[in-house]
Protein: Thiamine-phosphate diphosphorylase
Amino acid sequence: MHASGILSDQYHLYLICDGETCAKHGLTTADFVTGATKGGCRTIQYRHKGISAREYETNLLPLIDICRSAGTSLVVNDHAGLAEKYALPLHLGQEDALPSGLTVPYGRSTHGFAELALALKAKPAPAYIALGTMFPSPTKPDVATNRHVVGEYLTRTSLPLVLIGGITLDNVHELPKHERVYFAVIGDAFRFGARKEGIEKFVRLFAHELIHGQKG
Structure:
């Protein structure tokens, strides 16, 4: 594990369980996470915009049990209080305030060098940096692609780097492979169907793509 135990070296896959996307596909977040862990995924972020902290916590609890049983790191998106309450790592967007006295490890999203510089000056320091967006993404259509700066990011920080934005089985080979680079995936996880088995298949094939550079 890198980054205080958040990121796994096994697949370099940082899978995002997005509550809204799961609902759109008719798959529960628990089934999504179950399929992902069965496929071997060891880093999953639970993201769910537009719901209350109480609703988020209700949804989070079964995911904690699933991930702990599988030895998978579960990352809380935005809800710092819940991350602290359950001793889980936290992910913050580039505009989210860093809570004072934060004790759990956290990652920070960035979209350019100015945001990277601010993130690296923060106290406590982030455990990893995320960089978006790699490819046109339906979840963030207004953000320009910037995969051309990945190499420069790696020279400006020694932290692990999570790449995000439109990454799929078909285009991940276009991104740099590096021991500190991880790949965040959201929508493409559903390419084999909105079932636990489909998510499991995606995770296994993603690992195969990274290791062998081919699908199938």
The mean pLDDT is 93.
